[in-house]
Amino acid sequence: MLRIGVLVSGGGTNLQAIIERIEDGYLKDCSIVTVVSSRPGVYALERAGKHGIPCEVISRKSYSSLDDYDKALIEHFTKYNAGLIVMAGFLSMVGTLFVNTFKNRIINIHPSLIPSFCGKGYYGIIPHQKALEYGVKVTGATVHFVNEEYDSGPIILQKAVQVRDDDTPETLQRRVMEEAEWLILPEAIKLFSEGRLVIEGRKVKIKESGIND
Ligand code: GRF
To answer: If you write DSSP's letter for every residue of the chain in order, what string do you get?
Structure first.
């Protein structure tokens, strides 16, 4: 059984996608054992509560240093024996202590085709605003392993989404979530749970078969 910890900060639609894929059997032998929000009162916590998933708020501003924040997160996910940590709309930065403790066991969903429209300050609606300002014809979403830099770890999956002439940042964000994020995040978790992801330097290779075959 893959024990999954999910980090959230907002609406939790990506968390919802994972919950639903577990419930419909697409994600076998996976269980979300804890949801941690960087902020209180976000809808992601309500989503978790409706499915009986233990929740916690661990907020960066409650800790005097990034190291102390990392230690609180490490203690929490170690207590829950998380085998994979998923950043699903998570807006706080974590430090090298946390990343190295769970090396190659933290993944993030980013709402653009990395390396475009990513890095510090590119979160939520902003990547979509920048994509429209630039005039790209295609954008999308990326799932990647988390390393010490923003949005720069080895890429696991990407999915492209056409930009429409009449798109606003809001309509584009919604379509990227519906047509890309909510599909590739569960798929990446499935591949991880089956032991089919092999990291070779910057590249992630997907093996045809995994630990269950
Ligand atoms: C999504 O666009 C996600 O890609 C980004 O934050 C937005 C909200 O995610 N990281 P969620 O609805 O909280 O999962």
So the answer is: -EEEEEEE-S--HHHHHHHHHHHTTSSTTEEEEEEEESSTT-HHHHHHHHTT--EEE--GGGSSSHHHHHHHHHHHHHHTT-SEEEESS--S---HHHHHHTTT-EEEEESS-TTSS-STT--TTHHHHHHHHHT-SEEEEEEEE--SSTT-SPEEEEEEEEPPTT--HHHHHHHHIIIIIHHHHHHHHHHHHTT-EEEETTEEEE-SS-TT-
